[in-house]
Amino acid sequence: MSMETMLATHYNIQASEKVVLAGRDGYKQDEYVYFTISSDNREIIHMEQAALAYYLLENNYRHTAIPVANTNGDWFTVFQNNTYMVVMVEHLNNITRESNGRSLAAFHTIGTLYSFEPHQISCYGIWKKLWIDKLEAYEKNVPLAAKESPNDYFRMVMDTLPYIIGISENAIQYLQESERENRFDTVDQGTISFQRYTNNLQKSVIWLDDFVFDHPVRDLAEYTRGMLLSDAPSEEIVQFLHDYQSERPLSIFSWRLLYARLLYPVHFFDHFDSVMSGRTLEDPFTTYSSLITMQEEYEKKMRDLYQWVGLDSTSLQIPVLHWL
């Protein structure tokens, strides 16, 4: 039985056509498009994300996917032994050519006004613990996976593992020192943000299952990381950060968090997670080789980042890693 059957049976939704948006199957009825989100063991998380979605819809983010209740008034439906939440979108975003930096700053400002800090999806103030946990899991799981599959891909991963561990430890140490920084401001309040911000606001739908609650630098860093890895010209990166700062000037504490987060090799961990979970359709060997190749250039750009944006790290007493 298909998702159309579930929608018809449990939601009285008679889909007239199927559409695919951002790799997700949608079902159209009148002017609404409905999507299903797998919620197995994630109900509390999805309820917190749902509250954020309704808040954003009320604040004119009309292309936010919001949950709909089933015919029994429940938010979750068990169908073929799986639990689902159904979300709907009425207004798809007509991609605007708004400045990415300014639109993200406006979003973060609205996010800081949200009255209740979520618990399940909040990463605010706990990066150090999360990073250590991630690193320890990686240190444990990579050798196990390499033992089970002694192929070229895992041989290469094992060869580079000491480097990944080393750079992660450097980032954790840099973060630890930055947490003692007392030059912070209102810009450092927690806000609605995304797992990995890749210009989500200007896509056709804002997906609620991408939401986290965190320091706004999370989104700035992840979007900057994407640009650093994609060989975007330095002017583009500087423009993005400048546009953001024109609305929300960053504190010294924010700059240090940004640097720490960019230093932490999330892009390697994300790659490994997608390989281990079987989500990736790409050839892991090729993807990982290109990540390793890009890393040298990435570190060079990291070394110059403060300089690009016109921050005098020496007079501001912001440490820079000179080995980069």
What does it look like?
The structure is a single chain. The chain has helices at residues 3-11, 43-58, 100-112, 127-148, 152-178, 217-229, 234-247, 252-263, 266-276, 284-308, and strands spanning 17-21, 24-29, 32-38, 66-68, 77-79, 82-89, 191-194, 211-214. It folds into 2 domains: 3-94, 2-Layer Sandwich (Phosphorylase Kinase, domain 1); 126-309, Aminoglycoside phosphotransferase (APH), C-terminal lobe (Aminoglycoside 3'-phosphotransferase, Chain: A, domain 2). The strands form 2 sheets. Strands 1, 2, 3, 4, 5 and 6 form a 6-stranded antiparallel β-sheet that branches. Strands 7-8 form a two-stranded antiparallel sheet. Helices cover 50% and strands 12% of the residues. Strand 5 (77-79) and strand 6 form a beta hairpin. The longest helix has 27 residues, at 152-178. With 324 residues, the protein is α+β, with helices and mostly antiparallel strands. The protein contains 10 helices and 8 strands. The mean pLDDT is 90. InterPro entries: CotS-like (IPR047175), Kinase-like_dom_sf (IPR011009). This is Spore coat protein YutH. Keywords: Capsid protein, Virion.
